[in-house]
């Protein structure tokens, strides 16, 4: 029979254990078939590899390349587990290799482990499609800790706070709303962009308030699918077009220079010949049949006879 004191001690241990798990409970997210584990440093976590079919063997590949293998005796119910005390060296992509006797080819699964703070981005890097919706999310990493508020700072635009009352029918700025599968009570700080545009590209900062009275933040990088490929192609097209234009202008300039040079030299010879002919005609003797103008030279008038013209003096001299 259990005494009252033993009962109270057991109850205290249970409560203490629940609080410990609440503080150090890592979170697991499955996105596009890939599993992501968000854990605190020095937290005990279990990396699990599961299969819908019985396993013959199972093996893990550490991000550093180190391997952990399990034979069929360690595999139970289509699941094998690698327990670790997570450190920063354990961050990265883990590989899980599953072997089955009925299927000779291995099944390989990827598990992402990230050592983070109290609030962290579920995906630190997101690639969206232009004009399509996308969800950006941060979450608490020490269990389902409720948030007092959730806010976002877009790369371009005004910051805003958001919760489950902001629906798709009544979005903020006609584009931001809270995803229906998220909840502030379980530690989800998330926003869905209705139609992604180029001004949404960049670093998004999520901020969440916890019961410690502090705001915890993380940064999410959002990119648009094919944006840099298009930019590179555009830049290449502009560069190639600039080269073609420069070549065309250089060609036209060379042709114009050649044409001007040819046209400038051709009339030069006749012009010199014409000048020589004119000089010869000026100093040659008069040709027959051509009238030569008479040049009359008038002598200055005699100062002693004012008013008398030279012509009148010449006409009166024979008298």
Report what the structure shows.
By secondary structure, this protein is an alpha+beta fold. Among the domains are: 19-115, Immunoglobulins (Immunoglobulin-like, Sandwich); 117-241, Immunoglobulin-like (Sandwich). It contains four helices and 17 strands. The strands form four sheets. A six-stranded mixed beta sheet has the order 1-2-8-7-4-5, with no helix packed on it. A five-stranded mixed beta sheet has the order 10-17-16-12-13, with no helix packed on it. Strands 9-11-15-14 form a four-stranded antiparallel beta sheet, with no helix packed on it. A hairpin with a 5-residue loop joins strand 4 (57-61) and strand 5 (67-70). The longest helix is centred in the C-terminal third of the chain and has 39 residues, at 227-265. It is extended, with a radius of gyration of 49 Å. Residues 4-23, 229-236, 266-289 and 299-319 have low confidence and may be disordered. The chain crosses the membrane at residues 237-257. Keywords: Membrane, Transmembrane, Transmembrane helix. Residues 276-319 are annotated as: Disordered.
CATH architecture annotation name of the domain at 117-241: Sandwich
Q: Roughly what percent helix?
A: 25-40%
What is the CATH topology of the domain at 117-241?
Immunoglobulin-like
The profile of the biggest β sheet is:
6 strands, mixed
| Fraction of residues in β-strands | 25-35%
CATH superfamily of the domain at 117-241: Immunoglobulins
Question: Whole-number radius of gyration?
Answer: 49 Å
Mean pLDDT: 76
Helix/strand-derived class? alpha+beta
- DSSP E strands, number: 17
Poorly predicted segments:
4-23, 229-236, 266-289, 299-319
State the name of the first-level CATH class of the domain at 117-241. Answer: Mainly Beta
